[in-house]
Design a protein that fits this description.
single chain; alpha+beta; 4-stranded antiparallel sheet; 12 strands; 20% helix
Length: 181
Amino acid sequence: MTRPVRYLVFSAAGLALLFLLIAGSFPGGLELRITPVKGTAPLLVLPLQPEERFTLHYYHSVENAPIWEEHSLDDQGRIYIEEERYLKFGAGMGRMPGVGRMVKRGPYEVIEEMHLPTGNFVLRIGSPGVDHTVIWRGIHTNLSERAPHTAVRFAARPVSLLYRLWRSIVPHPATPAERSR
C-alpha cells in the first residue's frame, strides 16, 4: 500500500471510530420494555423521547367500563402517570387528593396534570375482554391477546444515540412497525 492510500485508510478508520465514540456517548432517547416477570424476551419494546406519552387502555374488570391511563418518561427513564380517563367512578377509580385536576371531557371523567411517579411497575395482564392494550404513536398492541394472565414489568431506560441509530436500521423484533405519517 502506498503512503497516501495508507493515510486515507487510517484517516477513514479514525473518523469512523471517532463517530462511534461520539454517538455512543450522546443520549438517543429512551426505550420502554414490557417483559414477562418470569421470562426474558420482551412482549413489546418502544422507543420513546422524554415526555412522549404512551397509553394503557383496558376495560375495568368489575364495571366493564373503558379506562385510559396516559404515561410518560422523563429523560432518565422514570415512568409517570399523567392522566386517567374513564366513564364513571368504578371500583378503585376516582380522584386522589392533591394529585392532578379533575375535569369532564364529554362523557368521561378525567384526572389530568397528574405527573405522578410510578417508576417501573408490574401489571398482571387481564384475559381477552379486559383487553389490556398499549397505544404508542397510534399503534394498538393488545397484550391480553398475546399473554393473558401474565405478570409483566414496564421498565424504561435511557439509550445512546448509537443504539438508537442501530435500532432505526434494525428495529427490535418486539417493536411494532410505525405507520407512515
